[in-house]
Design a protein that fits this description.
The chain is α+β, with helices and mostly antiparallel strands. Helices cover about 40% and strands about 20% of the residues. The protein has two domains: about 5-100, Orthogonal Bundle (Arc Repressor Mutant, subunit A); about 125-245, no CATH class. The chain is built from nine helices and eleven strands.
Length: about 250
């Protein structure tokens, strides 16, 4: 089934030319748009991994979304892959308006790329889990009025819990089983801050475990924080290179 949400007369930013009629958008484009809405933005490499197709085929799907106006394309980092985010039209077409528009900039582009590749890899390897992005989790916790898979990091100025959310959540198919949260760490945080996060995860009763994906230099810092927080039984560090190499 396809939805009439696009047009061939659009620019790269997804604006519709006046006087044109919406063109049908196929299910592959809509699914890619939905995934981009959930994660904030995705790359052709990540979509290729997730969909088990060539990068050229994945890029064609995303470019079709740009022409239809459901996706926007940006390349804020020189010589790095382009990122595709859902437009307002794309959010409406996929029922994702509650997530809001994803924002892509030079400051968050590398992280968005890495998260998309980790998410795609996990979806392929963890078929018995549903991979959820931080944006979805934030929405679901807002609707629930409580934390679902977030760690408490103290109290906010208004008296509510100050929550730390991971980049991804792996929700198991088994009823009653706790989720595994995934952090994608590209830069070294201040030691006290990182240790506080690890300590919060170690105390969190809503999750089963934490997976940190990080490059070698950041991995060392995370391991020190895990030791300082005595969180080794809940928090594990894994290499980022095997899941994010395609983004470089």
């Amino acid at each position: 089934m396809s939805a009439r949400v696009g047009t061939a007369g659009r620019s790269a930013t997804g604006r519709q030319a006046s006087g044109t009629q919406p063109a049908p958008v196929g299910p592959r484009v809509l699914e890619a748009t939905r995934w981009a809405a959930e994660l904030g933005a995705v790359t052709a490499d990540a979509l290729a991994t997730r969909s088990r197709v060539s990068v050229a085929s994945a890029r064609a799907v995303l470019q079709s979304g740009v022409r239809a106006g459901v996706l926007s394309r940006s390349q804020p980092l020189h010589c790095r892959p382009a990122l595709y985010a859902a437009t307002a039209r794309g959010l409406r077409a996929t029922g994702s308006l509650s997530l809001g528009a994803g924002r892509v900039s030079a400051s968050n582009a590398a992280h968005l790329m890495a998260v998309a590749h980790v998410a795609a890899s996990l979806e392929r390897r963890q078929a018995d889990h549903r991979v959820q992005g931080e944006r979805e989790l934030r929405r679901d916790e807002r609707l629930a009025g409580r934390a679902l898979a977030s760690a408490r990091l103290g109290t906010a100025p208004n008296g509510s819990p100050a929550l730390h959310r991971a980049d991804l959540v792996l929700w198991p198919d088994r009823e009653g089983a706790l989720p595994v949260v995934v952090e994608v760490e590209l830069t070294i945080k201040a030691p006290r801050r990182l240790a506080a996060i690890c300590r919060a995860w170690a105390r969190c009763q809503l999750i089963d475990a934490v997976l940190y994906y990080a490059p070698p230099d950041v991995s060392r810092a995370v391991r020190r924080a895990i030791e300082d927080a005595h969180a080794g039984d809940r928090v594990v560090v894994l290499p980022l290179a095997d899941t994010a190499s395609a983004a470089s």
